[in-house]
Specification:
Chain lengths: ~450, ~450
Amino acid sequence: MVDQAGRSGVEGRGRGSQGRYQVVVIGGGFGGLPAARMLGFADVDVVLLDRRNHHLFQPLLYQVATGILSEGQIAAPLRHVLRRHKNVTVELAEVRDIDLDRRVVKANRMFDEPLEVSYDSLIVATGSGQSYFGHDEFAVHAPGMKTIDDALEIRRRIFGALEAAETASSPTETEEWMTMVVVGAGPTGVELAGQIRELAVRSLDGNFRHIDPAQVRVILVDAGNEPLATFGDKLSAHAARFLTGAGVELRMATRVNGVDAGGVDVRGPGGDERITARTVIWAAGVEASPLAGMLAAASGAEVDQAGRIAVQADLTLPGHPEVFVIGDMATLDHLPGVAEVAMQGGIHAARSIMRRRRGEPTGPFHYRDLGSMATLGRFRAVLSVGRLRLTGFPAWLVWAFVHIVTLSTAAGRVGTLLRWAGAMIGHSRNERNFSVGRTGGDVSLPAHDRAAAP
Amino acid sequence: MVDQAGRSGVEGRGRGSQGRYQVVVIGGGFGGLPAARMLGFADVDVVLLDRRNHHLFQPLLYQVATGILSEGQIAAPLRHVLRRHKNVTVELAEVRDIDLDRRVVKANRMFDEPLEVSYDSLIVATGSGQSYFGHDEFAVHAPGMKTIDDALEIRRRIFGALEAAETASSPTETEEWMTMVVVGAGPTGVELAGQIRELAVRSLDGNFRHIDPAQVRVILVDAGNEPLATFGDKLSAHAARFLTGAGVELRMATRVNGVDAGGVDVRGPGGDERITARTVIWAAGVEASPLAGMLAAASGAEVDQAGRIAVQADLTLPGHPEVFVIGDMATLDHLPGVAEVAMQGGIHAARSIMRRRRGEPTGPFHYRDLGSMATLGRFRAVLSVGRLRLTGFPAWLVWAFVHIVTLSTAAGRVGTLLRWAGAMIGHSRNERNFSVGRTGGDVSLPAHDRAAAP
């Protein structure tokens, strides 16, 4: 029987506030937010659950880590973004379980207070976290780049390392603080490595008396053969040339075997090597949110090596047409783990739910590849759209335009443009407050322990 | 004998890098930074010691606490501000002792590494901290408003309280979270109270589904008879009217006897009262930096109730003409503890040192009162300059102009103007990232402990 809830046999159980059809969306990221927004126009009740109060614009996280942007410029408050959709309720809560049989999401609110929300349809979009490929012990020495906290920690370490270098008691020690290793040469790693060099060479010019920040060594390590490997040979080669010219040392085809407070142990084409460095940043791998494993176990769905759920062609959980799993935590047709896939997935899920409600047929998810891009440095980017390959300033213009228009708030857009002008035309990197000492102090010391280094 | 170092018998001992005269400045705030900048043009070596890497523009701290500005917009990196003064070295270190006889400042750098700096002249400008009038135990429940950390903590509490109110399980609990007490009706307390109401009424409009943020009660408590008492009766009365109209409840002539997780105990004209409130902010008193007491003990100088050193007419430490003590940590002729006094004191000290070096006479410190002002809310301020009293929009224009031009960096100026436009013309308060849960999460929960409340 095809009821009001659509062709897939999902029953409209009327769990919403006026006994209406209720959609629960878990995660307000690139997948969940567009879904909630679109459903905000539909005749359904929507509950958006997120443990953060903001949508994070992750592609610009590296600019927070390098002092260009403030947290608020890349974090749009979910309540603010969704304020006009009165049928959407935002719940600040962390999901701990999903009961697929009873169709109930169980979460913890502030103060660990339990919250249960029933759903007629569910969209799970909790994305991915940093993966250390089984070496979680690396995390303390090499923070990842997934959250605002991560970015602020990395910022403290970068600026703290330069402060430590300025006052180091020996040339060896200075050199150790002046060496930074970025693991992973995907867009995040490449952008971060380029920005650290730019920060050192341009923005900090004249700031120090004992060190020359332009001497900062940035070493970019990746197991693949070239940076930005997913962009194809031509752009990879361009990126490699640009990075080398900007003073980034590339160590490709090189695996990281160990990370400690004093540096990294790597194995490259030339054999085993120890890179002494007090600052190591991990931008290498991702693994699906733990909810993926939980859903897979409950439904019998398969997961891949990165913990992602193998979803049906329409992005639903096998055997559960009422549950959509989208974005980085799902795998389908080898789609890349990028924001665009999550966004289109969120829109597909929302649209499918609306079509079912109207009794219209739904189809499989078709991803429309809009291309990929990454900045290399000031006014430089690489761009790949279909067969088009673009580099340099034209690519940067497109990059800047796309990133500005996709920021969620008008204030974020204008403010970000302004900071870019300040950082790229001028020299300003104002977001770098930092302090020492036990009494008061705004920001803690970098987590490095000088004593722990060899 | 009057030597090169000037009339006051200070010997030029040549401790600088090329055996030059060395001035040490402790503290890069409103007193120390102008002093270091001015000395940056003189033929002396300058060492500026601060435990923070930034100059903090405290008068706008309340805008960080209420989500309008980011930290970087009111924190100018000292190294950046002073980069062109090659004779100025910034040392990130916390001073722990001053040896007046040997003329040596002892400090701790990062990792607690000791640093000793000799001086020919010394300027001490470490300002003041929050005072709880002997009740330091209040601090955990009622954070102060002196540092960026303080402002971020208050921001978490304000936004966290509204989140908690949204999900509270009883009307009583909702009310407790919707009540906020600000202790102290000086400029900081008045500005904060006004901004919290404005945030609730304008910026958060439509953000919540269960509470109406406009119902937030803000109670402003002060032992004096009126808000902004130092501004005089006319402006105080204006401020009182405006605040009441904006929905701030004034409890004047009211003393705070106790603060705990559930509220404050006060004694007012109507007797003892318990105000139940989960959010309490302390903007009531200041006490001089601990260095003041240290210097007083070492020199025999007197200190007043707030711990400030009674300095000579030329701002020097009694018996130590080579040591200037300026700003909030010094007391002279009942000068107010405002930024302007510190700035003029810093310039006086720097100028005196330069004159002595040239063998010219130096004189006492003359404070030129440029007036005082405070914002009451959107486009509203009060202003007192000489006999002039100004209120409303004209006063706000002057306030905005003065605050914009005195921000230390161009980027800070433009960015701040923009945020004001966003917050005052629009509704944006983007700086409010916040999260719940144990795994990851950008920002910790407010320190309130629900269980600890009565």
